[in-house]
Amino acid sequence: MSFIDMHCDTISELMKNGKSLYSSDMEVSIEKMKLSDVFCQFFAMFIRMSEFDSPDEAYEYLKKMHVFYEKQMRENREEIRPALCAADIRKNRKDGKISGILTVEEGGVIDRDLSRVQELYEMGVRLITLTWNFENSLGFPNSDDPAMMNAGLKPFGKEVVERMNELHMLIDVSHLSDGGFWDVAELSRGPFVASHSNARSVRNFRRNLTDDMLRKLAEKGGVTGINFFHKFLGEDGKGSVADMIRHIRHVRKVAGIDTIALGSDFDGFAGPCEIQNCAQFGKLTDALSAGGFTDEEIEKICWKNALRVIESVL
User: Fold this and answer.
1) Distance between CA atoms of residues 43 and 22, nearest Å
2) What does pTM read for this prediction?
3) 161 and 153 in contact (C-beta within 8 Å)?
4) What ranges make up the beta strands (E) of the chain?
5) Mean pLDDT of the residues in the chain
6) How far is the C-alpha of 14 from the C-alpha of 16, rounded, in Å?
7) Which end of the chain is more exposed for a tag (fewer CB within 10 A), N or C?
8) By C-alpha distance, which of 69, 48, 193 is closest to 120?
9) 148: closest CA among 107, 66, 206?
């Protein structure tokens, strides 16, 4: 089986710790991706805004992270290449290379400068996660506070979504408030994604999607990437494959098989996970097969649905 993983924080962690993408103790590395035939990996440039004195300082750090990412691509070009669209992925695949898709996790780095969306696009960014866990210039995050959870995108956030529509960038609602989700659903001209979110009906956690959200995502042709973080999977804190299957079954039931992808969140969380790194993705496919999922359904979950969305938007 082959795989597309729609979210990891590996680049941010590699830069922070001075490690190489090819081989490291990170959960995602080129060596590990090759073991599981991960032929396309979304790499998030994650920014924690509270670590910086200003949005401008955060944006400058993001640009340094982009330089680091480009350096890793150059140093490992015999194994991995950047991809800007589905055609790039297919060419890289034909040439025996892994594809890397660059993303931004925390739209707050845009601040109130719409020209930064264009600049990010020119840097190769093809997906933006509009918020992280705190309010920013675009909108509000998922929250236990009902007022914040129900708040939608700010006027500038709507401008960013419109600009992303024009540039054919993937709009990512993971971490976004419920109100923000529905604003994106209205404003997005094509498929949008929740790159690393699960089903709230299975695990009642604010970062997961309600059944109505899952159905809307399906209606728009988007996907949700199943997140491997134990807090989003179940209450036992084990991060089990069985819990992943429970979420997948539920999404299939309420929104259809075409709405399911993978968004591991590797190198972005701490705690137990039965699938310890991307070399072990086969544990999930084995469990899906044993659970009665067809080969076609498993392929859709593991890569076909994600590639369809990439082809539709980028």
Assistant:
1) 14
2) 0.98
3) yes
4) 3-5, 38-46, 80-82, 98-105, 125-129, 170-172, 193-194, 223-226, 260-262
5) 98
6) 5
7) N
8) 69
9) 206
DSSP label at residue 191: -
CB 180 within 8 A of CB 152: yes
Nearest alpha-carbon partner for 172 in 1, 7, 4: 7
- From CA 294, how far away is CA 202, in angstroms rounded? 22
Q: What residue type is assigned to position 289 of the chain? A: S
DSSP string, 7-18: -B-HHHHHHHHT
Q: How many Cβ atoms sit within 10 Å of the Cβ of residue 25?
A: 8
Strand, helix or coil at 151? Answer: coil
CB atoms within 10 A of CB 62: 22
pLDDT of residue 283: 98
Banded model confidence at residue 153, pLDDT cuts 50, 70, 90: very high
* Paired residues of 240 in beta bridges: none
Is-contact 266 28, C-beta < 8 A? yes
Question: In sequence order, which residues have a C-beta less than 8 Å from that of residue 52 and are 6 or more positions away?
Answer: 58, 61
Residue 232 pLDDT class (50, 70, 90 cuts): very high
Provide the pairing of β-strand 125-129 with 38-46: unpaired
Q: Nearest-CA neighbor of 101 among 117, 87, 118, 115?
A: 87
Q: Judging by beta carbons within 10 Å of its beta carbon (0-12, 13-18, 19+), is residue 291 exposed, middle or buried?
A: middle
Cβ atoms of 295 and 152 within 8 Å: the answer is: no
| Amino acid 234: pLDDT | 97
Dihedral sign for Cα atoms in the order 132, 138, 144, 149: negative
